[in-house]
Task: structure prediction
Amino acid sequence: MKKTLLLVSSFFSLLAVNAQNLPVSQLAANKNAVLEELTGINCQYCPDGHKRAQALKNSNPDRVVLVNVHAGSYANTTPNLKTTHGDLLDVFFNPSGYPAGSVQRTPHSSDMTAIATSRSNWAGQVSAVLGATSPVNVALDATVDASTRQVSVTVEVFYTSPFTAGTNHYLNVGILQNNFEGPQVGSSLNPTAILPNGNYLHQHIFRGYINTGGTWGESIDASSAGVITKTYTYTLPATINGVPLEIGQLEFFAFVHAGHNAATTSQIYTGAETAPIYTNVPPATASNAGIINSMDVCAGESIIPVVKVTNAGEAITSIDFSASINGGTAVPYTYNGTIPQFGSVEVTLPSMSFTPQGTNNVQVIITSVNGGAGSIGTVSTSTKVINIGSEVNSLTGTAKMTTDRYGSELTWEIRNSSNTVVASGGPYTNASASGAYPQTDVNFTMVANECYTVKIMDTYGDGFDAGTGNGDFKVIAGGVTVAAVATFTGSEAIDKMKTSSSAAINEVTAAIGMEVYPNPAMDVVNVKFEAKGGDYSLAITDLAGRVVKSTIIANANGIQNVVLPIEGLVAGNYLITVAKDGATFTQNVIVR
Result:
């Protein structure tokens, strides 16, 4: 019995950015909206904010700039997407909760001091902004040197309605990062942002300002009758707070605002954003970012590895792979498809069958890029453990769920190989305090020689034991635990189990009262059963059917307690069988 974490999802690609490039327009135009959203990875409803904001951007192409500022207590996590500028903005915006958003930095509270507002208000505020005439236009271009990581951003500002002499406004220029793959609590509220491997694809992440003047911008003359031009050069760091700053996933934005950092007057007039042009891009370079899908299977099932490949150079059109299981014969596979410059792709390799051993793993290696014309990156190989589900020697099971305080977030289900639910439970009732709360057991029946998937789901996205109590889920069959989830921290956890072909017979032979303990075992395992007279054979076999330990109990009668040494056995799942006169009874044991 093994456990793995899994989050469900679908692929979400890089979104087009506002194409408001130089030269700046000198014709009167309506304002573009700038929505600065305060968000965080541990914020339950922030994905709903992401979804609402993205819908506004999609509905108004080239008119809405989204700046996702990770700030506040819900952003105090790993990976750390916070910035020094973002922390200052969080204080300035004065939110009453998260997610919160500021549209044009305009106060929306009765006391005129709080400029962050609920996500339910964003649509109306954006609509009003887009319908208003702007006194100023903004446009920008950006170029990134891929070899030096130096960016040059040129911004042009033109006042179609200049202000009176002596009026100063402020210009901010910042960095956004797209397509950042990571965790997110409450991700189910924004399903289009969930990847096939279960991770959440964060967009428009604010990574800081590069303008003179820092957080509150560089002063510009709002009475100017000509084009104001500013150029900023900045060397992009490899990481910010330990989080990679991927140069191929960046966009740059600029906006003009009044009032500096005064909450009652700090109004954004308009903004724009652009994708950079890249120079000195290296040849196509593929790196193996890892096998991203679950490797939990039942004995006899094949595996289908899905590998994420990242490109650190020009476009890739083909990649050659070599895949093997348990160091066996390598299987070649060629991917023919386009991975754009600085892009990534998830490659699904062909199905691979194998004979289980004590421990099992699959290895995938990149062997060639673009037929040899491209380069292999710093990481070419990924390896992942294959978890073989327990063998179940009973056709009746009992599901036992213990919830933490927030039982209403938890559900579970057991499905057969046809994806039919054979048992399920939850959601449960919330408790008044943190703790472990056993729920009513659920009994269910199975059929012989069938693979079952056990899935635990948490709608909040923090799993069991997130400071609110120790949850637990297990399936008991034939007197032993055959599937279990002790802790998990995401939205889903899965396990597998398979009923043996002899499970129906073993139901009848259960009268011998067989017990195997401890389970898991390390040095020895005890096999207890009631003998009815005669010779009994005991055997330990691995999942490939090989006998690794055996003994005979001659002339046995009454309760027997046989101690079997297991030192030297490779860690993994094994079967212990008691047999007499053609009747057998088998239970699973895990060797640690």
Confidence is low (pLDDT under 50) at residues 1-19. The helical segments are 46-59, 84-93, 122-130, 503-509. The chain has four helices and 46 strands.
